[in-house]
Design brief:
This protein is mainly α. It contains 37 helices and 2 strands. This is Anaphase-promoting complex subunit 5. One of its GO terms (biological process) is cell division.
């Protein structure tokens, strides 16, 4: 089920993806790249009405990322301008060439002429516009330079231009050896509007204040919405270290370093960066300026709260509780209700590790609504729904609660929580065994995210909610036998969530589980056994359960029984009801194989009682099928057929293809067993009906490539055709059975003693 607790982290740096970096001490300075931008602005003003409307619009869209971003090579800048207006790119290049190859006075004259842009009754540039502010900053920075600094700037401009000339010469030599058609192509928009590339950052040199703010805001937004487009963890940390060399008190850089360390699960570095962030926030007085005398205490209590969240994320619950107590104490002294509500939310998370308690959560939701904190209130409602889903509450009541939560989302435009809510609904329908409803919710979220764009051209579809929904979608396709489609979805997940990203473990687990099921269906138990280690590393309970399944398939009954008994005790202790029922069904199957059919019945009745108590309809239907099989073995097939009609409808409507095949195979067995007491005519009709059901079961098994079950169906069909005197059909089934039997030799277990 989707986790909603990660969103409770207090992030003082991010407000709609914007970093508030107001303590960076480095001012703007003039660089050759910025001089090239000044030349571009000058030529743009000279062109005036000569530029078409489309060209001017393209140039205006190009200017903002150029002014905010880091310095870039002249060749790339020129290529960007050529995409918008080739004529203007040539003018900029000529102007820069005259300045670089001319004398120092030419550069002096250029800066003197820039001031004319603001003169006149209708100036070319308004002083308060983005371009106007940039021009004024550059003129002011240039006027403050000493003569030696001016000369160094002029020398740097010459080197900047000469470096571009050398590169152009090398490119021309390369073009002579290359097909010109291969070099035709336009630079894509994402190269400028998208995130910064590692080589650009590495070559750009020290960043000014505004460039640093832009860099931090962009990377922070990408880490939140689309981690794959952010810099790699090592590269980002390197750039943050460079920023901190120029100003060690740059608090926001420390916080981004903390977020970056969380990506790679580095507990030491993340703790170190988090503490440094709040230390610098206090030392620089940034909090005191914005919050008065209360700023110092505010930093301390939120530092303790974030430290508690960090320890909780890494499973250090005792340290988290101590830090949370400290945050509560300081917040109570300061009468900070907002901080106390965050503390209450985390207190519930820590308490539920020990015992289930809805009291804290309900109190948190009520208080959050009282103090006007819709984000926390919604998270509380969704956590409450998640807890009550595991407690077996009716689906309609849970959906009503989520509907109330959705009203809060739409009222306050909380798009991230809308995604979490839909992912939660998908997981709840999956828990209750309603795959059709789960599929509908998954498609709803995918459609919504495809329409919602956020900053820097990034789609907000790389969040945990999106990963959860795609994983469920992949599993649903695999259950229906669409393994190619499931592979495509998992491939898409791997691209969007690389192995080093924080949500990669979700698709890794589902990928391993799908591979395991395919190997088991195909009878390749050695392959399935090799996948158990990977599943165990990601989810220990799932791994132990699947190890028992492999041992059972390999007829190692005593080892499988011991493992299942240990797992049953553990799952009962942690109240994992879904796994308890699955383990009970597996134990019942072991009793069948040991011919202890009467012992299996109480186990199945216990599983059925749990499934109905916790509203797990699909597991209840599967348990009824197992009960019907037990009744068939005990010699009462008529009663087995009666209860099959109660369970088969949910299986056929929402079940996996393998379960559908097993259900139809069981119906056919019961029909054949019941026909023994029928009149000859009625018996023939019953056997023909059983053959039709076997054909349907065979179609299902073939869809998931379940060869062992196919072999059993063919054997059963051959016997029925022989009884009916249909020699040709019997021989065909016998031939197919022989082929599969040679490929998959039997393990010495009678065919009638296995339900699945």
């Amino acid at each position: 089920m989707a986790s909603v607790h990660e969103s409770l982290y207090f992030n003082p740096m991010l407000t709609n993806g914007v970093v508030h970096a107001n303590v960076f001490g480095v001012r703007d300075w003039v660089t050759p790249h910025k001089m090239a931008l000044l030349v571009l602005l000058s030529e743009l003003g000279r062109a005036g009405a000569q530029l078409g409307l489309l060209e001017r619009r393209r140039l205006n869209r190009l200017l903002l990322p150029l002014l905010q971003g880091p310095d870039m090579a002249l060749s790339r800048l020129r290529k960007a301008i050529e995409e918008c207006c080739p004529h203007l790119a040539g003018s900029v290049h000529i102007r820069l060439k005259l300045m670089a190859e001319g004398e120092l006075k030419d550069m002096e004259q250029f800066f003197d002429d820039l001031s004319d842009s603001f003169s006149g009754t209708e100036p070319e540039v308004h002083k308060t516009s983005v371009v106007g502010l940039f021009l004024r900053h550059m003129i002011l920075a240039y006027n403050k330079l000493s003569f030696s600094q001016v000369y160094k700037l002029y020398t740097a401009l010459q080197q900047y231009f000469q470096k571009d000339d050398k590169k152009n010469g090398a490119d021309e030599n390369e073009m002579e050896l290359t097909n010109p058609e291969e070099l035709d192509g336009k630079m894509e928009k994402e190269e400028l509007d998208g995130p910064l590339r590692e080589e650009e950052i590495a070559c750009s040199g020290p960043l000014s204040q505004k460039q640093a703010e832009y860099f931090l805001s962009q990377q922070a937004s990408l880490l939140k919405n689309d981690e794959t487009k952010a810099l790699a963890p090592a590269s980002l940390q390197k750039e943050l270290n460079n920023l901190l060399k120029f100003n060690p008190d740059f608090a926001e850089a420390h916080y981004l370093s903390y977020l970056n360390s969380l990506r790679v699960q580095d507990v030491f570095s993340s703790t170190h960066s988090l503490l440094h962030y709040f230390d610098r926030l206090i030392l620089t007085g940034a909090e005191s300026k914005s919050n008065g005398d209360e700023g110092y205490g505010r930093s301390l209590r939120y530092a303790a709260l974030n430290l508690a969240a960090l320890h909780c994320r890494f499973g250090h619950y005792q340290q988290a509780e101590l830090a949370l107590q400290e945050a509560i104490r300081i917040a109570q002294e300061s009468n900070d209700h907002v901080c106390l509500q965050h503390c209450l939310s985390w207190l519930y998370i820590l308490e539920q590790k020990i015992f289930d308690s809805c009291v804290l959560l309900e109190h948190s939701v009520n208080k959050s609504l009282h103090f006007g904190l819709p984000y926390l209130a919604s998270l509380g409602i969704q956590s409450l729904v998640q807890q009550r889903a595991f407690a077996g509450k009716a689906a309609n009541k849970l959906m009503d609660a989520l509907k109330d939560s959705d009203l809060l989302h739409w009222k306050h435009s909380l798009s991230e929580l809308i995604d979490i809510s839909i992912a939660q609904k998908t997981a709840i329908w999956r828990l209750y065994g309603r795959s059709t409803m789960a599929l509908q919710q998954a498609q709803t979220l995918l459609s919504m995210n495809s329409l919602e764009a956020v900053n820097v051209g990034v789609q907000q579809n790389n969040t945990e909610s999106f990963a959860v929904v795609l994983c469920h979608l992949a599993e649903l396709h695999a259950e229906q036998g669409y393994f190619a489609a499931a592979s495509e979805i998992l491939k898409h997940l791997k691209e969007r969530f690389p192995p080093n990203s924080q949500h990669a473990q979700l698709w890794m687990l589902f990928d391993q589980k799908i591979q395991f099921e395919r190997a088991m269906n195909d009878g390749r138990y050695h392959v399935a056994d090799s996948l158990v280690a990977g599943i165990t590393a990601l989810n220990s309970i799932e791994g132990v359960y699947r190890k028992a399944i492999v041992l059972k398939a390999q007829n190692q009954m005593s080892e499988a029984h011991k493992l299942l008994q240990k797992l049953l005790i553990h799952c009962q202790k942690i109240k994992n009801t879904e796994m308890v029922i699955s383990v009970l069904l597996s134990i019942a199957e072991l009793y069948w194989r040991a011919s202890c059919h009467t012992i299996a019945l109480p186990v199945l009745l216990q599983a059925l009682a749990l499934a109905r108590e916790y509203s797990l309809q699909y597991l209840a239907s599967e348990t009824v099928l197992n009960l019907a099989f037990s009744q068939l073995i005990l010699g009462i097939p008529e009663q087995a057929l009666n209860i099959l009609h109660m369970a088969i409808e949910p299986i056929l409507a929402h079940g996996a293809v393998l379960d559908k095949g097993c259900a139809m195979f069981l119906v056919a067995k019961c029909q054949v067993a019941s026909a023994a007491s029928y009149t000859p005519q009625k018996k023939i009709e019953a056997l023909e009906s059983a053959i039709l059901n076997l054909n349907e079961a065979k179609t299902y098994f073939a869809k998931v490539d379940c060869k062992e079950q196919l072999r059993d169906v063919l054997y059963f069909q051959a016997r029925l055709f022989h009884t009916l005197g249909k020699t040709q059909e019997r021989n065909k089934c016998a031939m197919l059975f022989r082929q599969l039997h040679q490929e998959l030799p039997a393990h010495g277990v009678p065919l009638i003693n296995a339900f699945k």
